[in-house]
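Closing statement on the magnesium ion sub-project.
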Amino acid sequence: MAGWMFTARSLQQPAGILPPRCLPGYKPGNAFPSPAYAEAKDDSMAIERTFSIIKPDATARNLTGAINAMIEQAGLRIVAQKRVRITREQAQTFYAVHRERPFFGELVDFMISGPVVVQVLEGENAIAKYRDIMGATDPAKAAPGTIRKTHSKSIGENSVHGSDAAATAAVEIAQFFSGNEIVG
Ligand code: CDP
Ligand code: MG
């Protein structure tokens, strides 16, 4: 969805996000209070937001900080974050695209088996960049240095979720965060 793409000059804002003049630190002429916006030097650098989940296998092994260090070292900013137990209904809605797949029941059971950390990540080409940092769905096939290669146990218990496109990122972020909970 184009509303979630940002460029330095277009000043487009997603629905529900305050315009720059309403944000703390705004001064006339300073259109980009968020450092991520300030880093966007020309129209070719798209600042995006993507949705991330640190899954129950990772929170159980106390890996929230280790995974977030990898995210931040890659240049993505965590602009919203909460640790929650999601309900069966939330998990079924979130993974509805997979409801006919044989692993759907196990996937939902896994996602409600312990706490998760839901986050919004912001940065240049955040959606593709985070997918790169995560690595392939099956950790056995993930590239060295990725989160899943480094930390994950199996294709099911693979530690992290990341949105796969701008449209899904917008829907997934909206399932867990309201606009004023996202602070860039
Ligand atoms: O998470 P990702 O986008 O890489 O993969 P997906 O194809 O959208 O699948 C969603 C999630 O379902 C995966 O992250 C796994 O947790 C689970 N899955 C599974 O348990 N067995 C599979 N063969 C494929 C996916
Ligand atoms: Mg997916």
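The chain is about 35% helix and 15% strand. With this model delivered, the sub-project is considered complete and its resources will be redirected to Aim 3.
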